[in-house]
């Protein structure tokens, strides 16, 4: 019993060493805050005293988040497929941090995901996912690195673990695998500057991106635009 109590005390001491203290003035920038995981995280960190800067893809999402958060939470519109939008968001974050640097960057992209047999897809179908969920996240990370280095902050990339299994064609799995590789490389390179890089591989949540009706709609859309030759090679039974 004494050994167990001593072990618990040691565990608590070690655990508490890794807790972030003095949260006031620490800025955290989160992408994908319209709904789901990014939205919940922005509210959670806001309640605990962080200076949250939440990026939303839609004006509706931005307004709804602002209404149910404290005055210290700031929002900004962000389209990760648009370099100009990314540049404006970076300027906004720079102004909000006011020379303190960025304590945390949490990347939580929500690109559209047309999924189906690779033979059914066009290159623009890959772009619609990769431009947001991979290239967009890489671009905004690169542009925020000076602020992260200044504060010796951390990068946290939220990656759906289902994307690590290449069970379906399209850019979904490619974007997740790409973010894994980007994060692993960045982690090694940023150690010199005291910047931490982490990956959180989460499972599916109840959200629009895993709605079976949406997936079915995409499949029928892909099927209907196929050439007769490709469609005949698969047949109605395959569909």
Structural class: alpha/beta
How many β-strand stretches? 6
Helical fraction equals 40-55%
Calculate Rg over CA atoms: 21 Å
Q: According to CATH, what is the topology?
A: Rossmann fold
Provide the CATH superfamily. NAD(P)-binding Rossmann-like Domain
Largest sheet: 6 strands, parallel
User: Quaternary status of these chains?
Assistant: single chain
Question: What would you say the CATH architecture is?
Answer: 3-Layer(aba) Sandwich
Characteristics:
alpha/beta; 13% strand; RDH7 dehydrogenase; six-stranded parallel β-sheet; 239 residues; globular; Rossmann fold; 8 helices
Explain what you see.
With 239 residues, this protein is an alpha/beta fold. The protein has helices at 2-17, 36-47, 59-67, 83-97, 123-151, 171-190, 212-225, 228-234, and strands at 27-30, 51-56, 74-77, 104-107, 154-160, 196-202. It has a 6-stranded parallel β-sheet with strand order 3-2-1-4-5-6, sandwiched between helices. Helix 4 packs parallel to helix 5 (123-151) and helix 5 (123-151) packs parallel to helix 6. The longest helix has 29 residues, at 123-151. The chain is globular.
Outline the secondary-structure elements.
Elements (H helix, E strand, L loop, with lengths): L1 H16 L9 E4 L5 H12 L3 E6 L2 H9 L6 E4 L5 H15 L6 E4 L15 H29 L2 E7 L10 H20 L5 E7 L9 H14 L2 H7 L5
Helix pairs in contact: 4-5, 5-6
């Amino acid at each position: 019993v004494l050994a167990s109590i001593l072990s618990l005390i040691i565990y608590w001491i070690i655990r508490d060493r890794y807790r972030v203290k003095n949260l006031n003035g620490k800025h955290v920038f989160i992408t994908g805050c319209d709904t789901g995981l990014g939205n919940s995280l922005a509210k959670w960190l806001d309640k605990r005293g962080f200076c949250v800067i939440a990026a939303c893809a839609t004006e509706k999402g931005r307004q709804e988040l602002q209404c149910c958060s404290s005055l210290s939470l700031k929002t900004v519109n962000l389209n990760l497929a648009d370099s100009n939008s990314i540049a404006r968001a970076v300027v906004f974050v720079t102004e909000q941090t006011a020379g303190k640097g960025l304590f945390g960057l949490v990347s939580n992209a929500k690109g559209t995901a047309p999924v189906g047999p690779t033979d059914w897809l066009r290159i623009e179908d890959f772009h619609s996912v990769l431009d947001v969920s991979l290239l967009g996240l890489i671009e905004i990370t690169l542009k925020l690195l000076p602020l992260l280095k200044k504060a010796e902050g951390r990068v946290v990339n939220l990656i759906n673990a289902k994307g690590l299994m290449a069970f379906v064609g399209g850019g979904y799995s490619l974007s997740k695998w790409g973010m894994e590789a980007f994060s692993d490389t960045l982690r090694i390179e940023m150690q010199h500057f005291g910047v931490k890089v982490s990956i959180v591989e989460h499972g599916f949540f109840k959200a629009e991106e895993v709605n079976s009706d949406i997936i079915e709609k995409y499949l029928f859309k892909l099927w209907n635009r196929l050439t007769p030759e490709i469609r005949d090679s698969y047949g109605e039974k395959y569909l």
